Amino acid sequence: MRATPVNLAWLCLVLCLLLAATFVLGLTVGTASVPLGQVWDWAMGRADTGSAAVIVGQLRLPRLLVAALAGAALSLSGAVFQGVLRNPLAEPFILGVSGGAATGAVLAISLGLAGLWAVSTFAFLGALGTMLLVMAIAGRRGGLDAASIVLTGVMVNAFFTACIMFVISTTTDQKLHSILFWLYGDLSGATMAQAALLAPVLALAGAALWLRARHLNLLSAGETAAAALGVEVGRTRFFLMIVASLLVGAAVSLSGLIGFVGLMAPHLLRMTIGHDHRLLLPGSVLFGASFLCLADTAARTLISPSSLPVGVVTAALGAPFFLLLLARRGVRWM
Questions:
Q1: What angle do CA 186, 259, 174 make, to 5 degrees?
Q2: Whole-angstrom Cα distance, residue 113 to residue 119?
Q3: Is the pLDDT assigned to residue 328 strictly greater than 80?
Q4: What is the pLDDT of residues 149-178, one digit of tens each?
Q5: DSSP string covering 104-156, please?
Q6: If you average pLDDT over residues 196-212, what whole number do you get?
Q7: Maximum distance among all alpha carbons in the chain?
Q8: How far apart, in whole angstroms, are the C-alpha atoms of residue 130 and residue 186?
Q9: Which residues, including other chains, have CB under 8 Å from residue 223's CB and lie 6 or more apart?
Q10: Would you tell me how many other CB atoms lie within 10 Å of the CB of residue 176?
Q11: Measured CA distances, 96 to 33, 254, 256, 279, 290 (Å)
Q12: pLDDT averaged over every residue in the chain
């Protein structure tokens, strides 16, 4: 699909309708079903909605908003990483950012720091510190080539995994439940305040990345071609990965570890609309939001009245998808 204004408008319209449909499904389906008419009455501010006001307004809507924002952030970052590293198997956790965020959150929980904001702050700082560490190690020889970034991220992630296992082995049973739910990705504690915090981060980072979509297209075609066309390869790659990593850190710090969204959503979209990042980046935002909303709705309803962490659902879908991509690694790519 060519990146014309008309095609971009049609793409956004279709994906916005898909997102609206997933929101309607998420608001009406659950342990207690809420008829669409009651959802409409609640949205119109009518006072006779009864329990629907609590179920929809206080429980499901904040959860869906955080799911949509986190899914958009992870999907957008995945599209950027896949383009910068020229690898369809790349995803937001390729830099080890997830390991750093998880270590920060696990440390906060094990220290008994109460409150979701404390855990989120530690997780974000862990993600930020990890991203800076990976960049410093990968660039110590004067460059930031894709192979160095990937290998450094894998090794840093392995180190943080060992740290997490050590903390889990020494913590109490009471704290262990909270740690495991965060590691699996849990949106049950989502609030409107979290959505309000993540929304401007997504907007600013998304705008910064989309404005460099043309440079990302050139990088995806190869470093030599990009440099010949005037792109400062090292600086552009560093900027794109910094912004994408910060976006992942912000999302993970609020939603917990939710894997494979950044792998599946942009790749499925790329199979439909092509590789032009002027379409792929905004499309990834909307499609990733819909994808995680659907996954969270499934997590709430599959074993109703209990619920699963949404990370369990995305992992169950993502692991086979990853293996399929790995088996077909020889297919045409960019």
A1: 35
A2: 7
A3: no
A4: 888 888 898 999 999 999 988 888 778 888
A5: HHHHHHHTT--SHHHHHHHHHHHHHHHHHHHHHHHTTTS---HHHHHHHHHHH
A6: 95
A7: 66
A8: 22
A9: 233
A10: 15
A11: 40, 17, 14, 27, 25
A12: 86
- Distance between terminal CA atoms of the chain? 14
Task: Reduce the secondary structure of 232-285 to three states and give it as a string.
Answer: CHHHHHHHHHHHHHHHHHHHHHHHCCCCCHHHHHHHHHHHHHCCCHHHHHHHHH
Confidence at residue 32, expressed as pLDDT on a 0 to 100 scale: 84
How many C-alpha atoms does 296 have within 13 Å on its Cβ side? 34
Phi, psi angles (nearest 5°) of residue 10 = -65, -40
Domain locations in the chain as residue ranges: 5-329
Cα-trace Rg, the chain: 20
Query: CA 156, CA 187: separation in Å to the nearest integer?
Result: 26
Q: What is the pLDDT of residue 281?
A: 96
Sign of torsion over alpha carbons 143, 147, 153, 154: negative
* CATH H-level, domain 5-329: superfamily: ABC transporter involved in vitamin B12 uptake, BtuC (1.10.3470.10)
What's residue 332's pLDDT? 47
Q: Rounded to 10 degrees, what is the CA torsion of 206, 210, 213, 215?
A: -80
Burial class (CB in 10 A: 0-12, 13-18, 19+), 174: exposed
Whether residue 259 is predicted with pLDDT greater than 90 in this model: the reply is no
Residue with tokens 């979290």: 194
Q: What is the DSSP string of 34-80?
A: --HHHHHHHHTT-GGGTHHIIIIIIIIHHHHHHHHHHHHHHHHHHHH
Q: What is the pLDDT of residue 329?
A: 58
What pLDDT is recorded for position 47? Answer: 56
